[in-house]
Amino acid sequence: MRSQVLELLREDMLASEFEPGERLVEARLCARYEVSRTVIREVLRQLESEGLVTTVPNRGPVVTELTPFDVKALFEVRCALEGLAGALFAERATAEQREDLGEVLQRMSRTYPDADLAERLAMKDEFYSVLIAGAVNPVIDSTLRGIHARVQMLRGLSMQAEGRAPETVRELTAIHDAAAVRGDADAARAACELHVRNAAATTLRELSARQADSG
Predict the structure, then answer these.
(1) pTM for this one?
(2) DSSP E strands, 4-105
């Protein structure tokens, strides 16, 4: 039950069912997910450890609200780690993993531009799951999981931005070609870093626009 509610609440937060800074009231969450306060408290503690929930004095748990400074910091670390993951994939991935990455990319090329946000998130997650597995570095894997959990709160901003979908497919194609086809570690690193930098720029621009509208 706990794991099911954890996944449901995480998905709802990433789908913007709860706004950044919104209070997460235990009674309402209990009614929404039809579980006890004990389960909700355990779930909120887990989400706080992932950086998705922040406990504010005199307010209690709220949806984490990332500032532009937070976003820049997250993307700086993500850029470095994903660049390394791409380089290591080029050097270490098996033939099967290289083929798997190509298959994921083919599906994305066909369906990504017309997919909804949830589908795009799932496809991006699958692409990175294969890429990180092929890097064969558990430290990168565990560290990026924590970073991606917080970045996902913002991915809707960049992934739904006008014109971003075809750019994303082109950037992931460059990563695949360098890492899986040519096995060029330097080119794979550069392609991964470029993708993250472009995503960061789009996210910061969309975040600024959202804050301006709300202000």
Answers:
(1) 0.82
(2) 53-56, 60-63
